[in-house]
Amino acid sequence: xxxxxxxxxxxxxxxxxxxxxxxxxxxxxxxxxxxxxxxxxxxxxxxxxxxxxxxxxxxxxxxxxxxxxxxxxxxxxxxxxxxxxxxxxxxxxxxxxxxxxxxxxxxxxxxxxxxxxxxxxxxxxxxxxxxxxxxxxxxxxxxxxxxxxxxxxxxxxxxxxxxxxxxxxxxxxxxxxxxxxxxxxxxxxxxxxxxxxxxxxxxxxxxxxxxxxxxxxxxxxxxxxxxxxxxxxxxxxxxxxxxxxxxxxxxxxxxxxxxxxxxxxxxxxxxxxxxxxxxxxxxxxxxxxxxxxxxxxxxxxxxxxxxxxxxxxxxxxxxxxxxxxxxxxxxxxxxxxxxxxxxxxxxxxxxxxxxxxxxxxxxxxxxxxxxxxxxxxxxxxxxxxxxxxxxxxxxxxxxxxxxxxxxxxxxxxxxxx
Length: 417
Known about the structure:
Elements: E1 17-26, E2 29-39, E3 44-48, H1 55-63, E4 70-75, E5 78-81, E6 94-97, H2 109-113, H3 126-134, H4 151-163, E7 169-173, H5 181-198, E8 201-206, H6 209-215, E9 218-223, E10 226-231, H7 233-238, H8 243-249, E11 252-261, E12 263-266, E13 269-274, E14 278-286, E15 291-294, E16 315-324, E17 329-335, E18 361-364, E19 372-375, E20 378-384, E21 395-400, E22 404-408
Parallel strand pairs: 3-8, 3-9, 6-7, 7-8, 13-22
Antiparallel strand pairs: 1-2, 1-4, 4-5, 9-10, 11-12, 11-14, 11-18, 12-13, 14-22, 15-21, 16-17, 16-21, 17-20, 18-19
Helix pairs in contact: 3-4, 4-5
């Protein structure tokens, strides 16, 4: 989903958000540790990070619910938080959508939507109906009570309520958390459309990498209270600055190698690298979509843009796991080292498959370092159509499309389990 908001205001205003070296504590524990980023007017900024990384603390600091001990927070050019300044929440022009939606159970949907307006404005339901329409709900919902709504519908009403006072900034704390997959994307689409129509700047925090990449104009990776990388979501996914950032944005595999300027040598071959020249020991990032699998040495379509291996475009592998995901299956592949991997488009040496690679590699099957699984051989991930998925133990061929991203070994250390 790339229907990100780019419409300007519908009678309201939007504020640029700047967080500069923000330090915040919860009790005696320092949660935000010199965090810096900004979100432009009218855009959707997304901060993605695991539980406990400081996402909610960040939103509460921007909203003015929590104070900060160092750094500065600016909204629309106004300093609202620093060590010596704290503008109260009601004077910041900020709307807040909590994880649960938190509708008032004794008020109707219409009553909830207009709750934050002045008494005179609450008398007419015209604005409430318009707001409901902007988040994908019909006017007939105005008279319903919260208990008559599904979880997804409650989240949409909560967004409509937050938008009603025409805030300069909307803060969203994991607004799709706990919803089933279908509802999650329906509500996500409704949120983007609603935010687009009303034009407020938005900052959303989540632990879901897919929704973060789908809705953000600017994306930040929050790890242990610090922004590890911030910027265009496509660039962060394609050129992560560390292994930890790569893990936070999608499925990944890592293989050790030695870089020499614009190429890297690994136990499974030599590859062109991107993101600048490097020398010395590195970790090589391989995304599943960069690995193409075939049951025979003959592949359909063009060859990879770069030479995949010293021994040719093709490599031999054994399927060690198949994970069905509906429209796709995820394969885990054990790949032989280059010394034993002699397959090219003109060879068929199936007897060589039994030989393994004694090198270290990492196979990531989840959304973060806590889901890292380690293998004694070189292990890669690949997507394939379920109808074409081979069985576990099958011998296959693969080729890798580059160039590939590398990280210095000292910055690519991953927690063992």
